[in-house]
Design a protein that fits this description.
736 residues, alpha/beta, six-stranded mixed beta sheet, 10% strand
Length: 736
């Protein structure tokens, strides 16, 4: 086993085999005055009390759940179904106790006052103390969006976003990253991660494209191995203290929503706060068979192979073509899909957690203009199959409405009991009843050297070499290199959204290594000149590396032609596009015209159209959003590691082609799904990679058939589906 995991196992054994007295003393020492009564030294004459069955760790989880359910009042059960935001209770943590809250979360950018790992542990324990002062002492469960590492925590390792991981085609690497993320999340006292997104992105105008592993459901299915890294064998034998409950999201169809051209047109000229999302949280218009093939498919392995413990519904709606268009159903209200398909036909035995105020978006026929909570929305959401409700700032209102709906007979007690049983099962499996308080013992895991090394390796494997004329790459270790572009030395831009804050921020927002720092580190003997805007003289540089692309964004505000993030920094507010920003394109044009060898890196969450009418770009690289370890980009630039990534998305020739995906009839992109040139020794490549190399060589030599792009994309799709012979046959048609 990897060294880090072996060390974690030793730590687990050390803690698990300590006596109860030592465990209580450790909690007391850690929390001091925050420690609850049961963690203090016992009285001289303790009164003997019969221990409830649900507190007996020797009993089966099912028996413990059944026993606890019988003891709970309706109000206590509804409390377990309620999740509030930490900011709503931070000033008065006793609300956790008085509202009987079963869960808390941190949204993007919601952190303790001092954003350190130790402060996170202290904060979570403060809330947990209140939960344990309730009548039945049911521990609360804390959740967070650690979607590319523990990005809310300053100093954490920030891994490439999922789109970059999809480019690696390495499920084992994804699993290792899942475990590293879990180690860092659990080290800060949090046992639940709202990740991964197993969505299939079918339109790059979507602002969440980078949260997807790619456009092919077979690829997303393979990369769902990250779940096993997060959870280990938790659902089958209980979670260890370096594992977390994972969440597959967003069920289902969030990557297939239709771009709203009318909204895009209406947004023009309006202030940002009046503009609407153009594709995020929209409508997936589809037939049921296509929906199953494209959007339900990744949930199969997520549930069956990796036993994911929780699932989050999508904000989006689905409109079935079979019954005519114009009658979409919000996923949070879709009983057929949440209960009938997910919990029924797919046999999901975990629990469903709503997205942020997800049921608020359910239309209420009696009050269609109401964007908040109503009794109708609450009962519809519960009856549809959601078990826990993310009500960041309206938790009390939700509880009051649900209590009234149950008493009125509009929500059956059997539905309440089912929801609560599912939630309690995971709390028991996570060991929260035995070890409710977090330990600060493992905070050194956050941003550890081994995790950063893993991230650097992932960055290198995620880089996709789209073009390499005249073998421009790799660069020489002693070359004179001119580095330009706004994304060359900007950790915030290379980390993207969901980093420290929800939308992310441009600038030096996190500790790490920028791409420029990485170049200097990997090639210390090279003569490096840096100019962000390309205004400094190029001189006699042997080559140039121009690093351009996008600034950070997240859901909604990343939609092309959608609203800008008005409260974010100026860099975030630029209009989102599938083409380079004019200033970026200018740097590319001017620098590439001044050097013999020009390399362009695109740091972005989706493909970007880079104009090159005069053919001055010698090498073009899709660098995605690499995160905190920019040295991984430099590793492949200078040949320390080979280029090996493959496109997880089709790279369009123009923005007018979008949406464009593998399998389309008129498929003529700039670079097809699966494209990726290689560097390094050919002998090190496997048979599949060698076959792709031959096909790509034929394309570059002008010897490939006219439909070469479709053949390469279809071959990669076949390979991801495990059809190696079919893939080889298709590639052979390209290479001749």
């Amino acid at each position: 086993m990897p060294h880090s995991r072996a060390l974690s196992s030793v730590r687990r054994m050390r803690r698990r085999h300590s006596s109860a007295l030592i465990a209580a003393a450790a909690v007391t020492a850690l929390l001091g005055p925050l420690a609850p009564a049961w963690a203090q030294a016992p009285d001289a004459e303790p009164q003997a009390q019969a221990q409830p069955l649900y507190l007996d760790a020797g009993q089966s989880t099912q028996r413990r759940v059944t026993d606890l359910l019988k003891r709970m009042t309706l109000e206590e059960k509804i409390g377990q179904m309620t999740q509030a935001e930490r900011a709503a209770v931070a000033d008065d943590p006793t609300k956790v106790k008085t509202q009987l809250l079963g869960s808390l979360l941190s949204g993007g950018g919601s952190t303790p006052a001092t954003n350190t790992p130790a402060a996170w542990v202290e904060m979570v324990n403060t809330f947990q103390e209140q939960a344990l002062q309730t009548r039945l002492k049911i521990p609360m469960i804390y959740g967070i969006d650690a979607v590319h590492g523990h990005g809310n925590v300053y100093g954490a390792t920030v891994f490439p976003h999922n789109i970059g991981l999809g480019a690696t085609r390495d499920p084992q690497l994804a699993e290792r990253i899942g475990h590293a993320t879990a180690e860092e999340v659990r080290a800060t006292g949090i046992p639940w991660n709202f990740s991964p997104c197993v969505c299939v992105s079918r339109d790059e105008r979507w602002g969440r494209t980078y949260e997807s592993f790619g456009e092919d459901p077979a690829l997303a299915s393979r990369m769902s191995s990250i779940i096993s890294g997060m959870q280990g064998n938790g659902p089958r034998r209980g979670y260890d203290d370096d594992e977390v409950l994972a969440t597959a999201k967003h069920f289902a169809g969030d990557g297939g929503t239709r771009f709203d051209t009318a909204t895009a047109e209406a947004n023009k000229g309006k202030p940002w706060w009046e503009q609407k999302y153009t594709i995020d949280q929209g409508i997936t218009v589809t037939g049921k068979s296509d929906f199953a093939r494209l959007h339900l498919a990744p949930y199969g392995p997520a549930l069956d192979r990796h036993d994911v413990g929780s699932v989050m519904p999508s904000f989006s709606s689905v409109d079935w073509t079979e019954d005519g268009l114009g009658n979409p159903t919000k996923m949070h209200a879709n009983k057929d899909l949440l209960t009938g398909t997910l919990k029924g036909r797919m046999d999901f035995d975990g629990f469903v957690i709503s997205d942020w105020e997800g049921i608020h978006q359910i239309p209420d026929p009696a009050d269609p203009a109401n964007g908040g909570l109503t009794a109708y929305k609450v009962r519809t959401g519960v009856n549809a199959g959601t078990d826990m409700f993310m009500e960041p700032n309206t938790s009390q209102q939700f509880q009051d409405l649900l209590l009234a709906e149950v008493k009125a007979g509009n929500v059956a007690m059997s539905r309440i009991d089912d929801a609560v049983a599912r939630i309690l099962t995971k709390k028991f499996e996570l060991g929260l009843f035995e070890n409710p308080y977090a330990s600060a013992d493992d905070i050194d895991q956050v941003g550890s050297r081994s995790h950063r090394a893993l991230a650097r390796s992932a960055v290198a494997k995620s880089q996709v070499l789209l073009k390499n004329s005249g073998r421009a790459l790799p660069l020489g270790q002693k070359d004179s290199v001119y580095v330009a572009g706004r994304n060359a030395d900007n950790l915030g831009n290379q980390a993207g959204g969901w980093t420290i804050s929800w939308q992310g921020e441009s600038g030096a927002t996190i500790p790490g290594t920028s791409i420029l720092d990485g170049i200097r580190q990997v090639a210390p003997k090279a003569d490096i000149t840096y100019s962000a805007d390309g205004s400094a003289p190029v001189g006699d540089a042997d080559s140039a590396v121009v690093v351009v692309g996008e600034t950070p964004y997240a859901e909604g505000y990343g939609d092309v032609d959608g609203p800008e993030c008005g409260w974010c920094g100026a860099a975030n507010q630029e209009e989102k596009s599938l083409s380079l920003q004019a200033a970026d394109q200018k740097v590319v044009d001017e620098v590439c015209a001044a050097v013999d060898t020009c390399v362009v890196l695109v740091v972005s969450g989706r493909p970007q159209i880079v104009a090159d009418p005069k053919g001055r770009i010698d090498a073009l690289v899709a660098s995605w959003l690499p995160g905190s370890e920019g040295a991984g980009v430099a590793d492949v630039l200078f040949g320390k590691q080979p280029f090996s990534g493959r496109l997880p998305l089709t790279w369009p020739a123009s923005a007018d082609q979008v949406p464009i995906n593998v399998g389309d009839r008129d498929y003529k992109p700039a670079y097809p799904y699966g494209w990726g040139l290689r560097t390094g020794k050919p002998s090190s490549l496997d048979a599949d990679s060698a076959a792709l190399d031959r096909a790509q060589a034929a394309v570059l030599a002008g010897d490939a058939p006219a439909d070469w792009a479709a053949l390469i994309a279809d071959a990669e799709q076949a390979r991801m589906a495990g059809k190696s012979r079919e893939a080889s046959r298709l590639l052979a048609r390209v290479s001749g």
